[in-house]
Design a protein that fits this description.
- With 1142 residues, the chain is an alpha/beta fold.
- It folds into 7 domains: 20-228 and 264-289, Alpha-Beta Barrel (TIM Barrel); 308-440 and 525-571, glyoxalase-related enzyme like fold, CATH 3.30.1900.20; 446-524, Arc Repressor Mutant, subunit A (Orthogonal Bundle), CATH 1.10.10; 594-790, no CATH class; 810-951, DNA polymerase, domain 1; 965-1056, OB fold (Dihydrolipoamide Acetyltransferase, E2P), CATH 2.40.50.140; 1059-1141, no CATH class.
- 42% of the residues lie in helices and 14% in strands.
- The chain is built from 46 helices and 26 strands.
- α29 crosses α30.
- It starts with 19 loop residues before the first helix and ends with a strand.
Length: 1142
C-alpha cells in the first residue's frame, strides 16, 4: 500500500494543474487511503484540502515545500496541532527574511526550538487514525501494518537540551534538493538535530541517485519514503502543465518536452518499486505519525473589555439618551426593543463584536474620516444605531432586527462599513495600533486564469499571431460584467467549430485553455476584509506579507472556519464627495452666515460646516429635483432607467426613495409600473388577505422588501420572527426538498390562523416565493437611500458647492467630468475656462454662479507642473511665462489647446506653432521674434475640438451651439429624461466602441455630444457609421428603455439638404421688416431682384431650392421664394423664429 505525499495543488501558483475536488475524485476512485499536499512555500489550500478530504473519508496530511536559505528545499508536515502552529510561524517568519522570495534559515528552526524549551507542551490534539475514517475492509491489511512496523521516532540519545523539544513536525529531505553531494553529512545532521528523528529521506523515483539516498539514510538510520512529484493528475495533462510553466516563465511551448509528474496509481508504483518495497510501505508509517486534522474552529474575537455585556448595555442606554429617544412619545417601544436586542446579543456572545465595530467607527467619525450610515441587514439593529455603528433609526423605518441576528443564525453577524476611501487606511492603522500588529491582517484573494486571459496567455506561448487571439477574445461575451467561460462560449458556436476543424493551432489553443481555465494565477489582497485575532495570528493560521502588510494565507471562504472574524471596511467614493462638499460649504460660509447649531459629523471641523446627519428628510427642493430626473452626480440614481422611474413615480417622501432602491433590480423591476400606478391611485389596490394591508399599504400593495415576507409569515402563519427568517433563507436557497417541507408547514399554519382555504394559502405561498427569489432587504436599501438622498439634498440646496466637489473628485475621469460639466451648465452655473494666472490645481467656487476650471483636469498636466505654475504666477506675457516656467512640450500644448493662455495671447495657433522653435529653446531670441503676426487663428470649431481633446468637454461653446433644435422640431436628446417611443436627435459623434454580443454579433456603442450633454446609443456595425466619426450627425432612434437603438444615422449636412420648407413666424410689422432685411440676400429666383421681395407671383414660375414661407398670426401664409442651405443662411436666421419641414 502507498499514500502519495508529494502532491502540489493549484495553490502552487502556476506550478500545478491539480484541482482539489478533482484530486479527491481520483483518490477515491483509485482506492487511496489519503494523501499529503506540499504546495510551494504556502498553506493557501490547507483548509479546503482538509475539509474536502474529511468529507470524502480520506486522510489529509498537511504540509508544504519550504524554501531554505541556500535556495534548497525540504518538505515539512504537521504531526499535530503544535506542529501546525509552528509551521505557520515558520512560514510567517520567512517573509521577514525576504518579502519577495521568502525562505527560512536553519537558525529559525533552532530559535523556535529554544523558545519552546520552557513552554508547557500543548495538550495533543485527538489523533485521527486510518481506522476512524471508516474505510473499506480492503484496506484492513494496510491499517494493521501501521501498528506492527517499527516506530519512526527512534529513541536516540541526545546530549543537547534541544533533544527534549518536539516541534510537532515531520519532514522529508530529498538529497538532491537539500544539499550538494559533498554536503550530505552536514545536512543529515541538521535534519536530525532540528526534527529529532521525525524525518525521512525522500526518493522521487528509481532514477534518483540511490547511492545518495542510502548514504543519507544510513547516517542516522533514517527511513526512506517514496515521494514522487505530482503536479498534475492524469498522464495526458502533461502538455497542459508544460503550458502552465511557460505562462509562468514567459517562454514558448516547444515540442519534445518530457515530464512524468502525474499522480501514479498504486499498481504503477508497486511495479516501479517491485524490488524495494520499503519506500512505499514507509509512506503509510509516515501518514500514521501525521495525525493532524485542520478542523473548523469557532470564531474567536479579541477581548474588548473585561465585562463586555455590561459595557454594551451601558453604551446602548447612553446612546439612546443622547439621541433624544427617551423623550419621544413612543420611547417605551424603543426601550423594549433595545432590551430585546441586548438579550439576544448577550445570549449569543456577540457583545464584543458590536463593541469592536462601534469603537473603530466612532474613532473614525471623531478623527475626520467620513463613515456611511450603514450597509446590509445590520441597519435593522437599534443597538447598532444607539452605539454609533449605523445612522438609521430602525423603528422609524420599520427595519427588522431578526433579519440581522436571531438564535437560529449559525454564522457570525456581519457589519459592512463604508468609509471615505482616503480615510480608510487611517482606520486600519488605528485598529493595528489598538490590537497589535501581530493580531491584525488583511485577507488574501486569488486571481485566476479567466476565459479571455487564458486564451491570450496560451495564444502567446503557442506563438499564434496577436490579431487572431485578439479577435477571439473580443468575441467572448460578458454577462453582468463577467466574461462567460470558454465552455459556455464554445456551446453552439458553429463559426468557432469550423475554425477549430480547419486550423489545428486554434484547436490546440482551446484544448489547452480549457484545461487551464480557472487555475489560480496570483495572490493579492482582498479589497475590504481584515481580521482581528484573539492572539497572534501566526498561532492561528499562516501569513504572508506584502510590503510589511500582514495577509492571511486563507481566503475569505475559510477565514471563519479558521477561527477568525472578518471585518469589512469598504471604500465608498460617494462619502468622499459628501465630505468634500461639506468642506467647500464650510470654506464659503465661514464667517458669512449662521447655520444654527448644526455641527459636522465628519470629525473636528468648523462650526460653520453643515451637519449632513441632521438635514430634513422631506425637503421639497430635493424631491422636486429627483422627480424631474435631474440626477447626474446622485448616488444610485444616475442611470437612464432610474431617471425614468423617478420621473414616473414623482417621489414625495424619503420612504419612496427606499422603495425605488429596492425595486430597481432584476425581478422586482417588473413590479415598478404597478407600484407607480398604485401610488398615483390609477389602479385599485387589492390584497389577497385583509391582514396584508398593514404590511403592504406603504408599498401600494406590492411586495418590495424581504422584511415583508417575514411579516406575512408572522402575521398570517403565526411564525416567530426566527422561524420566518429561516423560511426566507430557504426561499433564497431554492432547494426543492427544503422548500417542499416549508410549503407544507406554511400552508397548514396559514389555514389554521386565517380559516382560509388551502388554495388561497397556496396562492399566498407562491406569491411570496416568486418575490423572495429576488427580494432586497429594506435594511440594506434604507442606508443606501439615505446616502442617495444626502447627495441629492446637497445638489439641490448647495448646488455650486456640490458640483465643484464632484468635479474635483472626478478630475481624472474624463467621461464623468464631462457629464458633470454639462450638468453644471444646465443649472445655469458658468464654468470659466482654464486660466494660467487665475486657475488653481482644483476646481474652485468663484462666486454664487461661477466655477473656475482646475488645472488638474487638463490632460498631460502633472501635479509637479501645476505646482511650478502656481508658485511662479502671475505671468505678464508669454515671454515671461517661457522664461520663468519650465514646462514640457506635451503640457504646453495641452495648456494652449485648453485656452489657458488666452489672457496673455488670444491667438492660440500663434503660440502653438512657434513655442517649440529651436531658436527659442536655445534662448537665442525672444519667443515673439520668432512668431509671425499673420499666423491664421484657429476657427471657432477648431478651438472647440482642441478643447475637447485635452479636457473631454466643451467649455466656451459646443460646435453645435449655433443650432437651435426647436427650429427642426426636436430637443437635445441629453435633456430628455423620460422614455419616448421614437427619438430624433442632432449631435457630434465623439466616439465609437466595438462590442460583440453573446451571439457573436458585432455592434457599436456610439457616444454623441450636444450643447447640453453626452449620451450613448447602440447601432449595427457598418462602414458608413465608422465614416461619421467626429462629424455632426442626425440620428433617428428607438428608445428601448435601457438604451437607444439607431434606426438611421447620416451627416447633419445631408439632413439639412432634405429641408423642403422653412416656415418663418411673423408676429409684427417689425418682424416682417427684420426678415426682409436678413433674407433678401439669400432668395434665389431669376425673375426677382435681390433688392425687393414685393413681386411674390414671379417666384412661382421656376421653383428651386428650399421653399421660404411667411406664417402670420391672423393672415394666410405667404410663399416669398426659395433659398439654398448654407452657413451664411444659418447665421442670418439664427435670431429669427423659424421652423424647418423635411
Amino acid at each position: 500500500m502507498y499514500i502519495p505525499l508529494g502532491i502540489k495543488t493549484s495553490y502552487s501558483l502556476l506550478d500545478s494543474t491539480v484541482r482539489i475536488n478533482k484530486l479527491v475524485e481520483f483518490l477515491t476512485k483509485n482506492n487511496f487511503l489519503g494523501a499529503g499536499f506540499i504546495d510551494n512555500h504556502n498553506l493557501f489550500g490547507a483548509m479546503e484540502f482538509n475539509e474536502k478530504f474529511i468529507n470524502s473519508s480520506l486522510k489529509p496530511i498537511t504540509g508544504c515545500e519550504v524554501k531554505l536559505e541556500n535556495e534548497k528545499s525540504i518538505m515539512i508536515y504537521c504531526k499535530n496541532s503544535e506542529g501546525y502552529k509552528n509551521l505557520c510561524f515558520l512560514l510567517s517568519k520567512s517573509y521577514e527574511n525576504d518579502l519577495k522570495n521568502p525562505f527560512i534559515y536553519w537558525s529559525d528552526l533552532e530559535n523556535l526550538m529554544k523558545s519552546k524549551l520552557e513552554i508547557v507542551k500543548s495538550k495533543p490534539e485527538k489523533e485521527l487514525s486510518l481506522e476512524k475514517l471508516n474505510l473499506d475492509d480492503k484496506h484492513s491489511k494496510a491499517n494493521n501494518s501501521i501498528h506492527c512496523e517499527v516506530d519512526l521516532e527512534r529513541n536516540i540519545e541526545r546530549n543537547s537540551e534541544l533533544g527534549k523539544v518536539d516541534l510537532g513536525l515531520m519532514a522529508i529531505a530529498v538529497p538532491s534538493e537539500i544539499c550538494e553531494v559533498n554536503d550530505i553529512e552536514s545536512c543529515a545532521l541538521k535534519m536530525e538535530k532540528y526534527f529529532n528523528g521525525s524525518w525521512c529521506v525522500g526518493i522521487r523515483d528509481r532514477q534518483e541517485n540511490e547511492f545518495l539516498v542510502c548514504k543519507m539514510s544510513d547516517l542516522h538510520k533514517t527511513p526512506v519514503v517514496a515521494i514522487p512529484k505530482v503536479n498534475y493528475i492524469k498522464k495526458d495533462d502533461d502538455e497542459a502543465y508544460e503550458a502552465l510553466k511557460c505562462i509562468k516563465n514567459g517562454t514558448y511551448l516547444e515540442s519534445g518536452f518530457f515530464n512524468d509528474f502525474y499522480l501514479q496509481t498504486q499498481e504503477e508504483l508497486e511495479e516501479i518499486f517491485h524490488d524495494w518495497k520499503e519506500p512505499l510501505e514507509n509512506t503509510l508509517l509516515f501518514a500514521k505519525k501525521c495525525s493532524f486534522i485542520l478542523e473548523k474552529k469557532k470564531p474567536e474575537l479579541p477581548k474588548y473589555t473585561d465585562n463586555e455585556n455590561e459595557c454594551l448595555r451601558e453604551q446602548a442606554i447612553e446612546g439612546i439618551e443622547k439621541k433624544g429617544i427617551t423623550k419621544l412619545e413612543n420611547s417605551q417601544e424603543y426601550v423594549d426593543r433595545l432590551n430585546f436586542e441586548l438579550g439576544v446579543i448577550i445570549k449569543m456572545n456577540f457583545s464584543g463584536y458590536f463593541l469592536i465595530v462601534a469603537d473603530f467607527i466612532n474613532w473614525a467619525k471623531k478623527n475626520g474620516v467620513s463613515v456611511g450610515p450603514g450597509r446590509g441587514s445590520g441597519a435593522g439593529s437599534l443597538v447598532a444605531y444607539a452605539i454609533g455603528i449605523t445612522d438609521v433609526d430602525p423603528l422609524q423605518f420599520g427595519l427588522v432586527f431578526e433579519r440581522f441576528l436571531n438564535p437560529g443564525r449559525v454564522s457570525m453577524p456581519d457589519f459592512d462599513v463604508d468609509f471615505c476611501p482616503k480615510g480608510r487606511a487611517k482606520v486600519i492603522n488605528y485598529i493595528v495600533n489598538k490590537y497589535g500588529k501581530d493580531h491584525v491582517a488583511h485577507i488574501v484573494t486569488f486571481g485566476s486564469l479567466q476565459s479571455k486571459g487564458v486564451l491570450r496567455d496560451v495564444g502567446r506561448i503557442l506563438q499564434i499571431p496577436y490579431p487572431v487571439i485578439d479577435r477571439l477574445c473580443k468575441a467572448i461575451p460578458s454577462i453582468q460584467g463577467f466574461n462567460v467561460t470558454l465552455e459556455k462560449f464554445m456551446e453552439n458556436n458553429a463559426d468557432l467549430e469550423k475554425q477549430m476543424k480547419s486550423n489545428p493551432n486554434i484547436k490546440k489553443l482551446f484544448d489547452l485553455s480549457l484545461r487551464l481555465e480557472g487555475l489560480f494565477r496570483h495572490a493579492s489582497i482582498h479589497a475590504a476584509g481584515i481580521v482581528i485575532g484573539s492572539k497572534p495570528l501566526h498561532e492561528m493560521l499562516p501569513l504572508l506579507f506584502d510590503e510589511h502588510t500582514a495577509v492571511t494565507q486563507f481566503s475569505l471562504n475559510y477565514i471563519e472556519t479558521a477561527g477568525l472574524v472578518k471585518f469589512d471596511l469598504l471604500g465608498l467614493t460617494t462619502l468622499t464627495i459628501i465630505s468634500k462638499t461639506l468642506d467647500v460649504i464650510s470654506d464659503r460660509r465661514s464667517g458669512e452666515c449662521d447655520l444654527g447649531d448644526v455641527h459636522s459629523s465628519v470629525g473636528s471641523v468648523s462650526e460653520n460646516m453643515l451637519d449632513i446627519s441632521k438635514i430634513p428628510l422631506e425637503d421639497d427642493k430635493t424631491l422636486d429635483m429627483l422627480s424631474k430626473g435631474h440626477t447626474v452626480g446622485i448616488f444610485q440614481f444616475e442611470s437612464k432607467g432610474m431617471k425614468e422611474v423617478l420621473v414616473g413615480l414623482k417621489p414625495e417622501s424619503f420612504k419612496d426613495l427606499i422603495a425605488v432602491i429596492s425595486l430597481y433590480r432584476p425581478g422586482p423591476m417588473e413590479n415598478i409600473p404597478k407600484f407607480i400606478k398604485g401610488k398615483h391611485k390609477e389602479i385599485k389596490i387589492e390584497y389577497l388577505y385583509s391582514e396584508m394591508e398593514k404590511i403592504l399599504e406603504s408599498t401600494y400593495g406590492v411586495f418590495v422588501y424581504q422584511e415583508q415576507v417575514l411579516q406575512v409569515a408572522r402575521d398570517l402563519a403565526g411564525y416567530s420572527m426566527q422561524e420566518a427568517d429561516l423560511l426566507r433563507r430557504a426561499m433564497g436557497k431554492k432547494k426543492p426538498e427544503e422548500m417542499a417541507r416549508h410549503q407544507k408547514e406554511f400552508i397548514k399554519r396559514v389555514c389554521e390562523n386565517t380559516k382560509s382555504t388551502k388554495q388561497k394559502a397556496e396562492d399566498l405561498f407562491n406569491q411570496i416565493v416568486n418575490f423572495a427569489k429576488y427580494a432586497f432587504p429594506k435594511a440594506h436599501a434604507t442606508p443606501y437611500a439615505l446616502i442617495s438622498y444626502q447627495t441629492a439634498y446637497l445638489k439641490a440646496n448647495y448646488t455650486i458647492e456640490f458640483m465643484t466637489a464632484s468635479m474635483i473628485l472626478e478630475q481624472q475621469n474624463t467621461e464623468k467630468l464631462a457629464e458633470l460639466i454639462y450638468e453644471t451648465k444646465r443649472m445655469g452655473i458658468k464654468i470659466l475656462k482654464p486660466n494660467i494666472n487665475k486657475s488653481e490645481r482644483d476646481f474652485k467656487v468663484e462666486n454664487d454662479t461661477t466655477i473656475s476650471f482646475g488645472l488638474s483636469a487638463i490632460k498631460n498636466v502633472s501635479g509637479s507642473c501645476i505646482e511650478e505654475v502656481i508658485s511662479k504666477k502671475p505671468f505678464v506675457n508669454m515671454q515671461d511665462f517661457y522664461d520663468r516656467a519650465s514646462i514640457n512640450k506635451k503640457t504646453m500644448e495641452s495648456f494652449i489647446k485648453a485656452g489657458a493662455f488666452d489672457d496673455l495671447e488670444r491667438n492660440r495657433a500663434k503660440i502653438f506653432n512657434e513655442f517649440n522653435s529651436e531658436k527659442v529653446k536655445k534662448r537665442k531670441i525672444s519667443l515673439f521674434e520668432v512668431i509671425e503676426d499673420d499666423i491664421q487663428k484657429w476657427t471657432e470649431e477648431e478651438e472647440a475640438n482642441y478643447e475637447f481633446e485635452v479636457i473631454g468637454s466643451y467649455i466656451d461653446h459646443h460646435p453645435l451651439h449655433k443650432i437651435n433644435p426647436n427650429n427642426f422640431g426636436i430637443k437635445w436628446i441629453s435633456t430628455r429624461p423620460t422614455k419616448e417611443e421614437d427619438v430624433e436627435a442632432v449631435g457630434l459623434l465623439e466616439n465609437l466602441i466595438t462590442k460583440k454580443s453573446q451571439r457573436n454579433k458585432i455592434y457599436k456603442i456610439g457616444i454623441v455630444s450636444d450643447p447640453c450633454g453626452m449620451w450613448r446609443f447602440i447601432a449595427n456595425d457598418s462602414a458608413e457609421l465608422a465614416a461619421l466619426h467626429k462629424k455632426m450627425v442626425w440620428i433617428s432612434m428607438q428608445d428601448k428603455g435601457k438604451f437607444l437603438s439607431v434606426k438611421n444615422i447620416y451627416p447633419l449636412s445631408e439632413k439639412l439638404k432634405r429641408i423642403s420648407r422653412i416656415n418663418v413666424k411673423i408676429k409684427s410689422e417689425q418682424d416682417l421688416l427684420n426678415v426682409s432685411k436678413k433674407l433678401k440676400e439669400h432668395i434665389i429666383s431669376p425673375s426677382v431682384s435681390k433688392d425687393t421681395v414685393d413681386s411674390y407671383d414671379e417666384i412661382y414660375k421656376k421653383p428651386s431650392g428650399i421653399e421660404l414661407m411667411l406664417r402670420f398670426e391672423q393672415q394666410p401664409p405667404l410663399k416669398i421664394g426659395y433659398v439654398n442651405w448654407s452657413d451664411s443662411l444659418m447665421n442670418s436666421i439664427k435670431d429669427i423664429d423659424w421652423e424647418a419641414e423635411f
